[in-house]
Amino acid sequence: xxxxxxxxxRKSLLRQLADSKVLLLMCVPAIVFFVIFxxxxxxxxxxxxxxxxxxxxxxxxxxxxxxxFEFLIKSGQLWLLTRNTILYNLAFIILGNIxxxxxxxxxxxxxxxxxxxxxxxxxxxxxxxxxxLVGVIAFNLLNYDTGAINALIRQTGGDPIKIYSTxxxxxxxxxxxxxxxxxxxxxxxxxxxxxxxxxxLYEAATVDGASAWxxxxxxxxxxxxxxxxxxxxxxxGGIMHGNFGLFWNLxxxxxxxxxTTDIIETSVYRMVLSxxxxxxxxxxxxxxxxxxFALVMTANWIVRRINKDYALF
Length: 313
What we know:
- With 313 residues, this protein is mainly α.
- It has helices spanning 3-19, 21-39, 57-60, 67-75, 77-109, 113-124, 131-142, 148-155, 170-195, 199-207, 212-237, 244-251, 258-261, 264-274, 278-306.
């Protein structure tokens, strides 16, 4: 490119920045946030390859290569954490999106504006309930001695259930609590997408004699496909990141439930809190980030091969 061409391109870029200065100013808080909390801590990932100690610091501690990862793999802990984290998030993504789409469609079919607003508010409310409060509610329902469920079982002549000692029951409990708390909030995106569908498509379908279910099947669902794919791709980017607040407040440090409830975040938290183990916890965190990055890149590549219009980039 010639010097004149480079100069014109620079002037064009400066002009675009000047025209978009208000939008850029609005982006400053988000940029600062990501720089401080996502990019500035990146050098700390070096701890995963060292035998860290406070005296020598991050870059002065002895280099041990992949020994921290080797320990996790041989102990079997890495596989357990990966399996639990991925399976829980897959359940959250698949069931969550299905329920969100169903609720958004049902809200769209409601003709009473008053009832629609009341329903939206009622479903939206659980999202703002603290995970701590959710844990307290769950404890008062499931506790062996004083829980409401076991109290009802005793009154009907049954044997109370030791739920906090039954690891197999907790995947269902955690998934149900997560869906209860997040489905109403997530349905807003799909409801907004439905509101953006051209009304003439519904009118044409009605004129052609389509029933309500046929309008949903042949107009609403196909129109929601791009939104669904984009949201799933975004969710896949965080498939290795569990909901720490939900898991910790529901299960806590209950070792008898770790087989089915322990995820990467809760394990890292215990390593740092109880064992002061920065090296292994950092190794797990680095593995978590790299695995999630590879997964979202692969998923985006597959979607791009099928239909590039639905890909993130």
